[in-house]
Amino acid sequence: MKGVSLVSGPEPVMGERAELLQSLARQRHFLRHTTRDLTDEQAAQRTTASELSLGGLIKHVALVEQQWMRFIVEGPAAMSWDEASAGDWTAGFRMLAGETLAGLLEDYAQVARQTEELVARLPDLDAAHPLPPAPWFEPGARWSARRVLLHMIAETAQHAGHADIIRESLDGAKSMG
Amino acid sequence: VASVTAEWTAPAVERADPDHVAAERRALEQWLDYHRDTLLAKCAGLTAGQLKRRAVPPSNLSLLGLVRHMADVERGWFRQCAAGEDVPDLYWTDADHDADFNEIEAADAAADLDTYRREIVAAREAVAGKGLDDVVSHPQARADRDIRWIYLHMIEEYARHNGHADLIRECIDGVTGD
After folding, report:
1. Among B32, B29, B37, which residue's Cα sits nearest to residue B10?
2. Which residues of chain B are modeled with pLDDT < 50?
3. Judged by CB atoms within 8 Å, which residues 55-114 of B form the interface with A?
4. CB-facing half-sphere around the CA of A123: CA atoms within 13 A
5. Which of A125, A139, B69, B73 is deepest in the core (most CB within 10 A)?
6. pTM score
7. Cβ–Cβ < 8 Å for A104, A63
8. CB interface of A with B, residues 137-176, below 8 Å
9. Which residue of A has its CA nearest to B131?
10. How confident is the model at residue A14 (pLDDT cuts 50, 70, 90)?
11. Which of A1, A9, A160 sits opposite B89 (nearest CB)?
């Protein structure tokens, strides 16, 4: 079996909450790692058929994590969607004039700190809120904090996968294996 | 009547949305299944030749390579590690630790997809009787792990590789989607 070098860490049993946070932290690290040694110009560059750039991905994932964490506390008002904000959504995937990779990484680190504080204080991972009305959400659905965290881990990991490919297309640098 | 033999393509998959509110074990099982099915959905409708394409150079990754890789990852964590079964690796060899990705030209795509599906069934059985706090160790691992960690690690592993699959599929035929 290969890949066991990934396997290191202090305690085998940390409990659900600590292990969810550790899992999310691991994936944030992988995503951040794809931007190592890049200039702002490289971070804003498209390198594949996809519209995505590395800086844009960092910005998007930070925003999404922040929104979902607010949802855990405040419910649907944290993520209200309307036609007017649809333009913001697209801009959330792109580095805009004046934005730097260092600044986006710092914002992302700040979001991560807030998430860890928030999850540590949560009374119950089963607590659920209704989702806001949006074209991509099933009407009437409620999500628990546990579901939000599992979603966020997978969302971050999937974008880290996009970032692996975008980085390798940019300058040949490999992030895995 | 002329008969035309249609070329084999990877079958469609029914992917279930995980419950919105579920207890921990059920949530982990459902999310893992969701990401397993996402990988199959990324393959659905493609020919063997398309599945073998290294579509985003210089990356060595192909959709079939990802399926083969995940079959061995499933086996490694669930059967070899969690259940302690003495079963060999499927594709990895001592000579080539990346044979899952490297040896695809001569591979039988349909057979590899069947192997992958069977491995998932075996993986579920391997941990069916274990609790999330049960601790297991792997001979090569540097630390013991609980079953919860294995589930989370597998969800992470799938989601990241499905990110690779997203961009590979987009390059093959323009299809995108979660």
Report:
1. B37
2. none
3. 56-59, 61, 72-73, 76, 80-81, 89, 92, 97-98
4. 3
5. B69
6. 0.91
7. no
8. 138, 141-144, 146-147, 150, 153-166, 168-169, 172, 176
9. A13
10. confident
11. A1
